[in-house]
Design goal:
The chain is about 15% helix and about 35% strand. It contains one helix and seven strands, in the order βαββββββ.
């Protein structure tokens, strides 16, 4: 597996002792939270306002994350509907004193753009071929 390009990184954080289970591995819920934050950043930027998580598709943990690992979360806008966005997210770990990273998990998060009353609102229109990465660049 090849780690995604740095321009797609949405969050980079060091896993800390407070985020561990009794066996010393990082809680899966902590990692899922980081992934949701990364996807939420893409959703807010693309929707031009508030967006809420409505689903996270199948997440399988491939490797444990250890205290001190640098965790990089990559997110890209996959597709949009009238009010919804699907954002693909991957989490990678890199041991603190290593150059090599490995994929930990991946999932697709679905967000809906909402107005000030929490009701769905239409997304701004863009060319359907444009992909927005965490770094704000576009391709397509």
């Amino acid at each position: 597996m090849v780690e995604p390009a740095n321009d797609a990184v949405a969050i980079r954080v060091v896993a800390m002792p407070a985020d561990t289970n009794p066996l010393g591995d990082i809680f899966g819920g902590w990692l899922m939270c980081q992934m949701d934050l990364a996807a939420g950043s893409i959703a807010a930027r693309h929707s031009g306002g508030r967006a809420v998580t409505i689903a996270a598709d199948s997440m399988t943990f491939l490797r444990p994350v250890k205290v001190g690992d640098e965790v990089s979360v990559y997110a890209t806008l996959d597709r949009t509907g009238r009010t919804s966005m699907r954002i693909n997210v991957e989490a990678w770990r890199r041991p603190r004193h290593s150059a090599a990273g490995e994929k930990v998990t991946a999932a697709a998060f679905t967000f809906v753009a909402v107005d000030d009353n929490g009701l769905p609102r239409p997304l701004p229109e863009i060319d359907g071929n444009i992909r927005i990465t965490a770094g704000g660049s576009t391709d397509g």
